[in-house]
Amino acid sequence: MRTTTVGDVTILLPDLDPEDLDQVADLPIDDIRDGLVDGVSWRGEQFADQSIRGCRITGADLGEVSWEAGALYGCEIVGTDLSGATLTGISIERCSFTGSRFTGTRLTDVRLKDVLFDNCRFDYATLNRVSAAGSVAFTNCTLGHGSWSSCRLSGTALRSCDLSDLELESCRLDGADLQGSRLHHFRTPLDNLQGVALGADQLPDLTRLAVEALSIVVRTEG
């Protein structure tokens, strides 16, 4: 069993042996299992009620795919482009994403459990009703200029991420670990941050959020 720990979050990772995987080039009409998906281009393809299980996906172009229902389980995704993709009602469990791109991606009603996003780009991405059913971590990710609404991400680790211009609305992040993350122009109601963990160096950004939320007028004497 392979695990990794980010702060207080321990994630169960996929444990794949490339020698046990079969090369996959063409997109099948049914589920994909135990496959090695390397450098394929399935850009703009449609997935419906399909599952991808026990696969290693590297250098793939999955930009603008539309995936509704189904599951991604026990997979490693490395250097893969999912820009502009639409993921709706899928479950992602025991998966790791490394150096992958989600620019402009839309995730709706997505369930996450034991998922690690490392050095990924989520700039301009939209997350709506995304929930963490288990351990989830974002490390060294770019999440700026995105929009998250009605997400339930309690206890999630967002370590050393760029949250610049990320907008949160009606989200639950209680117990989330935001230490080391950049909060420049981070936009959220204060109650979305109830119970999060921050570093001392992030307190000026938190003060700015509080001043803006409470419409406090700061004046110099004289």
Automatic annotation (TrEMBL):
InterPro entries xrefs: 5peptide_repeat, Pentapeptide-BTB/POZ_domain
Residues passing through the membrane, by range: none
Protein origin, superkingdom: Bacteria
Xref: Pfam families: Pentapeptide, Pentapeptide_3
Protein name, per record: Pentapeptide repeat-containing protein
